[in-house]
Amino acid sequence: MNAALLAGAVVGFGLYVLVRALFPARPGLAARMAALDAARHRDLEERQAGRLSPTLEKVGGVRARLGRELVKFYESRGWRLRSVRADLAITERSLEAFLATKFLLPAAALVFIPLVIAWFALLGLGSSVAVPAWICVLFAIVFFFFPDMQLRQEAQARRQDFRHVVGAFLDLVSMNLAGGRGVPEALMTAAGVGEGWAMHRIRDALGNARITGQTPWQSLGRLGEELDIAELRDLAGALALVQDDGAQIRKSLGARAASMRSRELSELEGKAGERSQSMLVAQLFLCAGFLIFLAYPALMRVLAS
Hints:
- 85% of the residues lie in helices and 0% in strands.
- The chain is mainly alpha-helical.
- It has a domain at 157-250.
- The two termini are 51 Å apart.
C-alpha cells in the first residue's frame, strides 16, 4: 500500500512538472521588466570584464549551464532572492553555482534510490521499496536546504568581520578629518590604509564612485545595500546629511565607532556566556552519568535480593 501511494505521488508530481514545463505560466509585467533589467545588467558586467567572473569560471560544464538556465527561470518569474543575493555577494559566490548546487544535490539523492533499495535487499532488511525510497526523499529535502544553511552561516560570519572593519574604518576617517582633509579625501585615505577583503570592497566602491561621478557616500550606501550591511547604509545617510560640517562629521563618526565597539563587545560577552552555560550543562550530564555508574551495582544487588 505504501509503495503504491509513493509511486502514485511520484507519477503525479512528474505529470505536474511536465505540464508546467509544456505550458508555463505567463509572467506579469513586473516580472518581465525585472528579467530585462537583470539581463541588461549581466551583459554590461560581462562586456566590462571581458570574461566571466572568476567564481563562475571554476564552475564548469553542465553545472554552469544548469545554473544559467535556473537564473533565467528565476528572473522570468520575477523572483528577486534579495537576501540570497546579498549573502552570495558578501561571500563572493555566484548565483548560478548556488542554484545549480541546490538542484544537483537533491537530484543526486533521488538518483541513489535504486542503489539504496538494492543495499537493503542485500542486507535482508525487507523487499519493500517504500522505506529506502522515503529515506532518499528525506535526504533530498535535507540536501535542498543544506546550501541555504551553509551560505547563511558563512555570510553571518563575514558580516561580523565586515562590521569590525567598518568600526576601524570610521576611526581612520575621523582621524583624517581631524588632520584637515575633506570628506572624500579622508574616505579614500582611510580605505587605503588597511588590507583584507572587507577593506578592499570599500576601496573598490570608493574608486568606482570616482569613475562614475557619484559621491563616496552614495557608493558606500549602495555597497551596504548589496551586502546587507546596515552600518554602511547608516554611514552613507549620516555623511549625506552633514557633508559640509567637518566637526559634526568627526563627532558623528566617533560616536558611531564607539557604539559599534560597544555592541560588538556585548555580543562577544553574550557568546561567551552561552558557551559557559553549554559547558555547565555538559558537566552536569557527566556528573549524572557518573552517579548512575556508581549506584547501578548497589541497585542491582538490592533488586536481586
